[in-house]
User: What shape does this take?
Amino acid sequence: MSQIVVPTDTPGFEIVRPVPVMGETDGSHAEVRYTNVRVPLTNVLGEAGGGFRIAQRRLGPGRIHHCMRWLGQMQRAFEIMVEYSLHREAYGSTLSEKQTVQNWIADSYVEIQAARLLTLNAAAKIDSGDEARVEISAIKFFGAKVLHDVIDRAIQVHGARGVSGDTPLEGMYRGARAARIYDGPDETHRMVVSRRILQSFKAGNGWDFGV
Assistant: This one.
């Protein structure tokens, strides 16, 4: 597989239609058709056949970028949830006094901290020159789940208001669902983690958690 630069004014290049994705309609995703498109050999990125390698080199740091952005979203949803619970009253007391809401707050705090530390660990591995395949895959699927769960709890605390446009939560929720698919679905990343660990054990090395 090779990667090739195709300028959008090349004859035969056609944007058929924008593809709406989880509420986005601004055309950031599109269906593209190539009809007898030709470009010079100089438009090949890197060496011929090296396209997959280029993609993989981008994906590692790209996935870390997603996870860092998700941490900001998690914390924002967490803050919205906690602040609302402190003043919204139901059945004679604030939501913050309800045990279920308290459990959601505690669970969200722990999960956000775990995701944050996993992300920092993966980033440190990359900075040291390590490929960090296991660490990146681990935080990609774990971070996506935490993102979804924290936002989901925040919506539940808000009730009907949480799914309205009066808070940013409904938009955040749509984005969180897509996170489990782009740059590799959860299932693929779980497979990467388990395969690498199993290979290490089969080689008699066990697994170093780096503690």
Summary: The chain has two domains: 3-45, 57-202. The first helix runs from residue 51 to 87.
